[in-house]
Design goal:
This protein has two domains: 37-396, Na+/H+ antiporter like fold, CATH 1.20.1530; 399-529, Rossmann fold (3-Layer(aba) Sandwich). 74% of the residues lie in helices and 4% in strands. The chain contains 26 helices and six strands. The protein has helices spanning 2-34, 39-50, 62-80, 85-90, 92-118, 122-133, 137-146, 153-180, 186-220, 225-245, 250-261, 267-291, 295-300, 302-326, 331-340, 346-357, 363-396, 399-413, 427-438, 450-458, 471-476, 492-505, 521-527, 535-550, 555-569, 574-578; strands at residues 420-423, 443-447, 463-465, 484-487, 511-515, 531-534. The protein has a six-stranded parallel sheet, sandwiched between helices. Helix 15 (331-340) packs antiparallel against helix 17. It is globular and about 80 Å long. It starts with a helix and ends with a helix. 41% of the residues are buried.
Amino acid sequence: MRDVRGYDDRVHANLLTLLVLLTAAVVAVALARRFKLPSMLAYLLIGITLGPHGLGLFMQSDAVSEVAEFGIVFLMFSIGLEFSLKRLRAMQKLVFGLGLSQMAMTTLATAAITWFGYGQGWKSGLVIGLAVAMSSTAIVARMLSDSLGLHSRSGRQTMGVLLFQDLAVVPCLILLPALAAPGDGLPHALALALLQAAAVLVLLVWLGQKYLGRIFGAVARHRSDELLVLLSLWIVVGLSYLTALSGLSMALGAFVGGMLISETIYRHQVEADIRPFRDILLGLFFVTVGMMLDLEFVLANIDKLVLAVVLLVGGKAAVVLFITWFVRTPLAHSLQTAAQLAQGGEFGLVLVELAHRLQLISLLVFQITLSAMLISMFAAPFLIKRAARLSVDLGRGDWAHKVTTVQDIAVHSIDLQQHVVICGFGRTGECIADFLALEKIPFIALDADPQRVAGARARGINVVFGNADRPEVLVAAGIGRARAVVVSYPDIHSAERVMQVVLEKRPDMPIIVRTSDDKDVARLKAAGATEVVPEVLESGLLIAAETLVHAGIPMNRAIRHVRAARAARYASLKDFYGS
């Protein structure tokens, strides 16, 4: 009977712990949303408050940390869904050029400061340098994904560096034990590990390209959401296991899996299936990170920690600024990339903890380095947001952009009256231009992709290079004389900047905005959009109409249903669709 009672007590205790954690998560995340702060800060605060160094309600354990690590795994899988092999090949210079440079320069600079400035010895300096060089994939990738910045110039540079850091974890995990052990077999061990890693990645990509689409097709024929979710989880866990088994990071295997699925027609379904697992596990990961911060140690060593944080954040930012300046990246983008990479990272925490266990660094050095990295991770969301705002201000004062780009735009718009300004000339922008041309309505299109602009100009289309969310660009495009502005790319933050500029100059200007989903419609309407067209709604209406016709409903009746739905949705066209 006592065993049963003891079991019941443990169950009740576990349920109470879970209830407290969920209650804290609901309250903290709600407050973060209320004050427009990243939800990850709420989870970090929960870890600090309820963890072993706070109220002591939760204790760190290997089991909890291992489960929480799957938050990073699922995050990297969802990031992989945003990429393709073609895009990754295009990023190889960023991964192995910018990534290698950042890793090497940060490691060497930190090692030199630790060795000569603090007299810790070259081994300790090298270990601390490698740990500090790592940045937080979990924080940065989540913020880039939420802000739709993965494919911006700074976003691509940041993701290239983060991917290289993930690759570098393998040789780092081999290097540390080799430094702690006697012998000279280090070069051979590193070479063998790199060959093994390359072979595993090539094998995964080859097999994935060949069989992954077929597997999803076979499962999809059963028309079971449950099977698709199970298959998605199987791929995430399976590829993570294979890469971990071969010495690579689990997150890298998950990224490869997501990248391979991105080339299939099942990408969006898989992304929707994975998101709940990703968000919950990632929240748990941030809770475990918060548990590691010892506030008592921080307060007792505040002077040393302030200096360590300044050196860590300032030094990493300076290295990235120098490298991006060297490759002639505009200052606005360099500043964003520097802020996105200036914090410590989860793999850095793993390395510094391993170094302490191997007695490569002292307890004091371990505590200061660990605390400095954690504090920098806390500060990262604020620094990234501040850098984004500052980069916009710098962009507005970019004289090179004004002198060359703006002059070209003004030349191409000077004869236009009552024209339409199309912001973005992708497939949607080109479709809009075709319709305007059919009705002989003049237009000018703005796009920040030089190759796309050159291709359009070769076909005689009035497209010019320029960032549409810059005031000087929109003024040069003639918004003072235009009849309408269309934002044809689904970047909500850029669209808001475009609307702000246009409405300052022309409060009466009709502005039509494209968005990827319904969730941003109210926000864009509040910002001043005349109409917001969500891709999901339009594709849903077309699919619904096709379904009705093939189900035996007459075409005219199906079209009436579509018109009624559009009349209810689009205010400016309500009279037409309602007729």
